[in-house]
Amino acid sequence: MKTLQTIFNTVSKHLLKQNKVCENNFSCAYRGPNGLKCAVGVLIKDKHFKKIYNNDGIYHDGVIKMLTLSGIPTDKESLIFLTNLQRIHDTGEVENWKTKLKNTAKAYNLKCSF
User: Fold this and answer.
1) Closest Cα to residue 34, out of 42, 16, 22?
2) Parallel/antiparallel/unpaired status of strands 23-24 and 27-28
3) CA angle 85, 91, 95 (to 5 degrees)
4) pLDDT by residue (tens digit) across 46-77?
5) Which residues lie closer than 8 Å to 58 by C-beta, 6 or more apart?
6) What is the distance in angstroms between the CA of the first residue and the CA of the last residue of the chain?
7) 49 class by beta-carbon count within 10 Å (0-12 exposed, 13-18 middle, 19+ buried)
8) Do residues 81 and 7 lie in contact, with contact meaning Cβ atoms separated by under 8 Å?
9) How many domains does the chain have?
10) Shortest CA distance to 90 belongs to which of 43, 63, 52, 55?
């Protein structure tokens, strides 16, 4: 299972490189057109991704199963952390992502290398 630090590293690197929101029909999605992925979608391995759950919330059984199969912890603390990362992607302006990610790292006592 991945740690919160490795999850943070993966998500922050992905979001800052992608630098745009992943949407599917004007709704945030785990996977979107042109290979776009949201903060949680990037954690789901391709072989475990099921399009049917693309717009479901993180607490949906199908999404939890995709995360678990991908080696992402789904205990209460981890799901809250993932929700916070997802919220940065879904509701924040792209130009504010770096600051919000830094604040998240600080709140969870994680190292931030950007």
Assistant:
1) 22
2) antiparallel
3) 85
4) 999 999 999 999 999 999 999 999 999 999 99
5) 40, 64, 79, 82, 83, 86
6) 24
7) middle
8) yes
9) 1
10) 55
* 112 within some domain: no
Q: Which domain holds residue 78?
A: 4-107
CA–CA dist 14, 50 (Å, integer): 20
Is position 72 within any domain? yes
Residue 86 in any domain: the answer is yes
One-letter amino acid identity for 70? S
Quick one: DSSP state of residue 23?
A: E
Find out whether 89 and 15 touch, Cβ atoms under 8 Å: yes
Tokens 């992925």 sit at which residue? 37
Whether the full predicted model's pTM is greater than 0.85, yes or no, is yes
Instruction: For residues 107 and 101, give the distance between their C-alpha atoms in angstroms, rounded to a whole number.
Output: 10
